[in-house]
């Protein structure tokens, strides 16, 4: 199935908008004074996990609306996103949490694109997810690099 080349305006706003706090935190950890970078990383983990869980909910919601998209693979994708997000919230080391979220975002970028191309996710995700989630990955990677530098 050839995806519609247009990405709805709402998907651009609500796709890239939630990535902006991750970019801000990725910059903030390098430029903020004192103990602020530690707080920034904690906020990045919380925000990153919330958004990854939301992406899992979007996938599951599409399956509710499109019964043929409720395959075991689609259910597993939605569950994996939420599980990775939840795990990132409970691991004891921030570097591991950030790495998990970065991997989860990369996974979602690839899996959602594939699902969109096969009709198991909204078609515009084939064009949106990779650049959208790479923006989030960049912010998370900056946090990880800061954590590893200290």
Automatic annotation (TrEMBL):
Membrane-spanning ranges = 12-32, 38-58, 79-108, 128-147
Designated name of the protein: DUF3429 domain-containing protein
Per the UniProt record, the source organism is Sphingomonas ginsenosidimutans
Keywords attached to this Swiss-Prot or TrEMBL record, sorted alphabetically, are: Membrane, Transmembrane, Transmembrane helix
- Pfam families registered for this protein in UniProt: DUF3429
InterPro entries assigned to the protein according to its UniProt record, in alphabetical order = DUF3429 (IPR021836)
Residue ranges that the Swiss-Prot or TrEMBL entry lists as coiled coil? none
